[in-house]
Amino acid sequence: MSTKDKRGNSQPSQTAKIATARKLSKLWAKKYVQQHSTSDKTWQSNSPGLRAVIAQRLLDSLRSVTIQAWAKTEALLCQQIKRQGINYRLIDPWQITKDTYSIYEKVLLAYADQVIPERLCLFLASDLGRIRHNYTAIDPRVIAFVSMQFHYSGQLLLKSLSPQEQATVSVYFQVIDDCLYMPLQRLYKTAANYDHQSLALVSLRQILPDQALIAQEIATRISDLHPHYHCYSGSLVNPTVKSASIRDVEMFQIYLWLCVLERSIAPIQQELFPLCVMLYPTLNVGWELVRQMIHLLGLEFGKRLSQQQISLVLPYFKVLWEMFSPEVFPESLPVAALENSA
């Protein structure tokens, strides 16, 4: 069913909009099944009793962990407040720490109750979407402080676990990272305004189930090309770095499709690019790595989309490439110099 807007154009009904948003969110959530559908079902391997014990142990340390995480976040990014001209009043450590505690508490309770990861993704999406919206409403760069706070909290919690315990719990923590770094709720809401059979929505439904695989292949390819490269947290094959690399490729994809749906370069220009300028030099991520990632992403789109579908993405893809081009970030400069030039 559809309705007409004031100009007489067909618009999806409210029911259709809700259905579209739900379908896209489920397509995204399925990636957790695909990524972790190993023969031993790692994320299911702990018994309910053991899960409850692990969850309680982490809950007991959660308050102190979130405080430690903010200290690490501040040490990493405090200089960026002045350097990037960010209004320090927008960064409220107490509220950020409170939000971190609240979300991790929900995740750990869900873990103890054996809520499966894809179900958790659907359950947490609105909360994390609201948090993301609140912190990006005035200055999108503030989400960097929030994301790093959540990231460090998760890393500190995992550090206290055995490797087997980490394997099960980290799947749940990944849901948090994904929903905070990427404007998923905004993507779903925008997509819901499209007709079910529109080229943009058909293309998004087609590519969304593959975006995790695309990201994994690109991250692996880049680490193969740069076996000796080290960023802030270690080499590109370091599990933590590899996970972050995959997430970043996914993030670039989501922002590209958001541009397509909004018919605007604003998501890249006003959100993604400023975040990268602030974070990548700090994390010792070279711009050539970013350019290689964008290039490989273009090749993947070329293999998976029709020419008509590519024509939708191409204008925004070109903008993305140009913004990270050598003309903007000269390759001859070291990362530290790039930070100053940005």
From TrEMBL:
Alphabetical list of SUPFAM superfamilies matching this protein: Globin-like
InterPro entries: Globin-like_sf
Full protein name: Phycobilisome protein
Naturally occurring in which organism (per UniProt): Coleofasciculus chthonoplastes PCC 7420
